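Q: I'm writing up a methods section and want to include an example of the input and output format. Could you take the sequence below and give the corresponding predicted structure tokens, formatted cleanly so I can copy it straight into the document?
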Amino acid sequence: MIPAMAVHHRVHRQHRGLGQMVLIGLAGVLALGFLMVPLAVIFAQAFAKGWMAWWHAVSHPETVKSIGLSLLVLAVVVPINAVYGLAVAWTVTKFRFRGKKWLISLVEMPFSVSPIVAGVAALMVYGSSGLLGPFLEDNDIKVMFAIPGIIIATLFVTSPFIARELLPLMQLQGSDDEEAALTLGAGGLSIFLRVTLPNVKWALYYGIILCAARSLGEFGAVSVVSGQVRGETMTLPLQIDLLYHDYDSSGAFAAASVLTLLALVTLVLKLVVERFYDREVESTQAERAPEN
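A: Here is the clean output for your methods example:
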């Protein structure tokens, strides 16, 4: 009986090991085919004519402006979304009120709305024939087909990322630490800065990185609201598309390589922060385990 059971377990482990190897191999093939090969092609095409040709394409005034505009949008969008995400997560996890589930659904709505639809919706609100269009025109305020419109569209698309990273961790942590600080006489702002924020800092960093990556790569909503004015409202993704359709493949791949490099930087930062974020979650789970 014992030898039979030992053989059964050995066969089971062999099948499980074989299944794991097949899944790992399949994941590797898919990653190679859909991720690594396209990335290699981008850099190969970008530097096909040499470093000088690549630098000439990247340093073109319109491309430089598109890079600067993308970074400007990122610099505006990320801090706003950080404040928004912290406010939403704080409200949902630290207070009890009716409609909490509706608020969470509202936060997640941009995930289910097409970016192009979001851009059209922005036009219907801020465009010349939109809801606020006459008021904006009377006060000589230009929103659509200008930088403010690009920022608004990007804010909508990227708004859930930081909040969605903060919510699970803050729900797991509960409000015991804040209640303890409150009983010791700490004020609301002091509790937030000295208790809540340090407890969720790695989740916040993680959400910021995801938000920044999404902001840099946004195309659909921005293409609708920007007007695609050369040298004025062209973000880096729009500039790549413009160069490609102008049959300037060298310039398109050179610009795409810059965007890819920025994406790789965010990926490396994500991997670093992810380690600390996982430790933060594991530490919180370990602290809450005795209570359960």
